[in-house]
Amino acid sequence: MMEQPVEENKRKGRDIPDNNHEEEERNNVENGHDKDQSDALPDAFGTKLISNNVVASMPTEKYATHYNMNHKNRGLALIFNHEFFDIHNLKPRTGTDQDRKNLEDVLRKLGFEVIVFQDLRYHDIERQIKQAARYDHTDSDCLCISVLTHGDTGILYARDTQYKPDILWSYFAADRCPSLAGKPKIFFLQACQGDKLDGGVILSRTETDGHLEIDSYRIPAQADFLVVYSTVKGYYSWRNTTRGSWFIQALCEELRTRGFDVDLGTILTFVSQRVAFDFESNCPDSPTMHQQKQIPCVMSMLTRLIQFTRVKEGLEENETLQKQEKRKSTIKGLFTKGK
How far apart are the C-alpha atoms of 328 and 148, rounded to whole Å? Predict the structure, then answer.
């Protein structure tokens, strides 16, 4: 179903920001060459010491244009959905359950094994992330983690406290999770990144007059990550109380319609287009918050294009229904679902 234009959105539900307010540190990592010097100490994802001795399997040719998306399994997709909080100044995130449902449905259609966690406390989030990092991803194409919550500059909120988002991806660096080395790690974050408002600008039309065979190669531990924020640093992220957040609405619609047709980078460009053009806050009782805009932010460390292959009809070759169900049960058994 196609998204409704601004006028339609104004008639259904209320648009509210996913906010509440730490400057995010961005550091460079040393690459080991004698002549090259680092401009900072720890790396951007929190791994202060990177081992040069970790060896992982090469999932595709060195200069392949696309990631290998033809493994036995698509991979795990974890959704951390937060509606209620124990923190007194954080209001319930009405509409987030619609986001959760839409995201869960579209990720399943893309072939992911989806596991949903509801209103977890910080230590439970960290425990599930560590469990996912310990999982053997050898037969998986990729990993996808989504967080739907309140946020502010450089922080996200669990049910009981705030935390820095790098906890979500630091455990999946290539030196810490070798079975995901060279594979895409995708993160979708629906949360405010501050309290700034974007009133937008009105545009008007103006008239004017062979690859090389190599046995092995080294990659950065922080390579192959894709982190997509619902908004840019410092700004509000909007959520409609009936339809769900603007970003997740647009993301799910684009994945639904283009998921198998174009690469994910292209899809995300159209997600940004949809959020930027089709949505506008509807808060007529608050002139400051009324008719505000939003634009997602993509942070990419990818080294290839991500193109989802179509999920095969029926069962995989040599995999019986019993084996398939046993595999799914084993995966879910590794994670303790939050209530």
Answer: 24
What is the reported pLDDT for 212? 45
Helices and strands, counts by H and E, the chain:
7, 12
* 218 contacts 276 by C-beta, under 8 angstroms: no
Q: Which residues are catalytic?
A: 150, 192
pLDDT digits (tens, 9 = 90+) for 312-322: 654 454 555 66
**pLDDT of 283-298, one tens digit each?**
999 999 999 999 999 9
State the pTM of this model.
0.83
C-beta separation of 181 from 58 below 8 A: no
Rounded CA separation 134/128 (Å): 10
Residue 207 to residue 204: CA distance in whole angstroms: 10
CA 18/CA 93 separation, integer angstroms: 8
How many angstroms separate the CA atoms of 252 and 238, rounded?
A: 16
Asked if pLDDT for residue 60 goes beyond 60, the answer is yes
The residues, ordered by sequence, that sit 6+ positions from 192 with a Cβ below 8 Å of its Cβ are: 17, 18, 19, 20, 150, 151, 152, 231, 235, 236, 237
Where helices occur in the chain by DSSP H, the ranges are: 6-10, 96-109, 122-134, 166-169, 246-258, 264-278, 321-333
Cα dihedral across residues 143, 144, 150, 154: positive or negative:
positive
User: d(Cα 234, Cα 7) in Å, to the nearest integer?
Assistant: 27
Q: 306 with 263: CB under 8 angstroms?
A: yes
Give me the residue label for tokens 């202060």: 48
Helix-, strand-, coil-residue percentages of the chain, each rounded to 5 = 25, 15, 60
Q: Mind listing the pLDDT tens digit for each residue in 182-239?
A: 999 999 999 999 999 999 988 876 554 444 445 688 889 999 999 999 999 999 999 9
Out of 25-29, 242-246, 256-260, pick the least confident: 25-29
